[in-house]
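Input for the complex:
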Amino acid sequence: MDKRQRIIDATIQLCLENGIEKTTISHIVKHAGIAQGTFYLYFPTKLAVMPAIAEQMVTIIHEKLSQIDRSESITMKMQKCIDTIFANTSAYQELTKLVYSGLTQTEEVKQWEKIYQPLYDWIFEVIEEAKLTGGINSELDSGIVARIIMGSIESTAEQIYLFDYAPTIQVEHVKNNLHTFIMNGLGKNI
Amino acid sequence: MDKRQRIIDATIQLCLENGIEKTTISHIVKHAGIAQGTFYLYFPTKLAVMPAIAEQMVTIIHEKLSQIDRSESITMKMQKCIDTIFANTSAYQELTKLVYSGLTQTEEVKQWEKIYQPLYDWIFEVIEEAKLTGGINSELDSGIVARIIMGSIESTAEQIYLFDYAPTIQVEHVKNNLHTFIMNGLGKNI
Amino acid sequence: MDKRQRIIDATIQLCLENGIEKTTISHIVKHAGIAQGTFYLYFPTKLAVMPAIAEQMVTIIHEKLSQIDRSESITMKMQKCIDTIFANTSAYQELTKLVYSGLTQTEEVKQWEKIYQPLYDWIFEVIEEAKLTGGINSELDSGIVARIIMGSIESTAEQIYLFDYAPTIQVEHVKNNLHTFIMNGLGKNI
Amino acid sequence: MDKRQRIIDATIQLCLENGIEKTTISHIVKHAGIAQGTFYLYFPTKLAVMPAIAEQMVTIIHEKLSQIDRSESITMKMQKCIDTIFANTSAYQELTKLVYSGLTQTEEVKQWEKIYQPLYDWIFEVIEEAKLTGGINSELDSGIVARIIMGSIESTAEQIYLFDYAPTIQVEHVKNNLHTFIMNGLGKNI
DNA sequence: GATGAATGAGATTTCATTCAT
DNA sequence: CATGAATGAAATCTCATTCAT
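Predicted:
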């Protein structure tokens, strides 16, 4: 019904199937079941749809993170955060690729920061809280470290699921290393 | 002389100037000073040039890392590694974007792992050596952590230079946080 | 007005002037006064226009045959049929060639039968009527003989006009032989 | 070994597989295992290979016709001629198509007459002999009728094998009609 | 004779964009 | 708001032909 949403859905599906380059507005409108001209009533270009897709994906992750019990330890929270990102990257491998290359291809790149904000905020809160409750003993800038952590989790997940590093069987081993590294990094247990 | 190299060079330069989308094969051949058809003798499509570019970029970084004195401490080496990646990402912002979206758009994705191998190996050696000389006291898997570290450095650099996070003035502050986080992560000073 | 018809007309005219090989889609659209992309809204390839042309040509011949008075003798009708096919092959030499090689080059070959049907039907009717009125005394299968006759007329006309057999001056002599042969073949005058 | 023959063979095979239009000199030389430039030492263009192919095909038919016993009756000879052409068209359906459209596409068309000469001559001799021995009582011009007959046999065979007329099961029925028609046409048995 | 990398004119094809309905 | 036929600039891609080796 909602034409805007139908455009987004069609774009996701087509890009997943054929890649961004080969997905054209003509294909999108055909797949969305709308007229050629209608596209332009909602988006100026094909790449302008990407932020909407990214937003949708970030929202999914954020919802999962929000369900984590606030009273849990930072160790546990970070564990679950890693699990969530890994699960998401695994499930939406191609979509992740899509969002990445979609965003990097345009001036929309700058929006990345804003779209990711909720995730950074979530980690930020976790760190700040841990600082207060003595969960960690860190001198680090929470805002910056939040980004570093999110980046390291994502890039590790990508290396595994997108770039084919390591047999899938070792995923747990990698996740454990990553978790230890991050907790160490935050100065936990010192 | 070498036509293949001239195609790669032209592709890099044009993509840096105008972005991937707007760089066409027609532009490339014109800039490379070769005939239209000659392009197809070396690459089947525009995107097929990307792995060659990625390789070249990794080579540049690797050469810089190789120049670091082997006798330096791991702390110093990691510092210089961060500096190198940041400098590179800053200098070749667009090329970085290019490599990223170029690689993710094709089946070549899987090559990424292989192309990056030299960089992972360099960090791996640094960690292993530090373990031996007592520079760090880590139980972590060096192969995995090498990838985590490289990922965290790159993603942080990208957030700064590509996604416009943080005013440039704070770059040193971010780098310090990143360095501390990594060294902590490795279990240094425990 | 009708873009499809304009494409067909332009294709015919250009192929008559320059041959099929040298007629390009670019030429066709220019001559038809439409945009390059418009061609592809109606036909996927140049050769896909051929069946439409064949149909048009058969229609022309069929109209001429239809004008022949039904009350004439089979001898007269066959004479006029020969004259019509010869005149047509002579006038549209290149178009005939075009239709032939156009149709044989694609999967459309099978359509030939269907397109030619009206001509076969016309001869079929003539033979059947002659059988009834005693014009001929033939045991032959009218459907099959209709095709044999049409084939012999066309191939003879082609030998003369396309393959340059016999000086033009002898055309009447050839036509007479052909007519006698066909009438004999049908068992006339026995 | 013989490069000329290898070009011809490659051209036949490739045209049978992909059609004339889509067969390029590049494909031919690759398939023939010779260098790009070598082609031009033997043929000026792709279509210039066609007469060589036609010649090859006509030679095959002519050899079969030559094996027919000279002492047989014209009725028998014509029967065997029909059988030979039908068998050939059936076996080399695609090659026939190829030769046809290949020849009609160029100025080489005029060579058709010359290439076919041996076949016309064979029928010519048969008719002339029959005239002498009283096998037929025809006033027709043997040279012209030879062409008419050959044309009618070929076009009928094509209708059956190329254009899909009539179920294969009726082939004998068609051949019988054709034979009767031709013998009648020649004035036999009057 | 034979080679095959290189050429580049020109063909096909695509597709974002418009605009009258 | 919505449509979709038409556009045409510009892209990709082909391929006959050449020529230095």
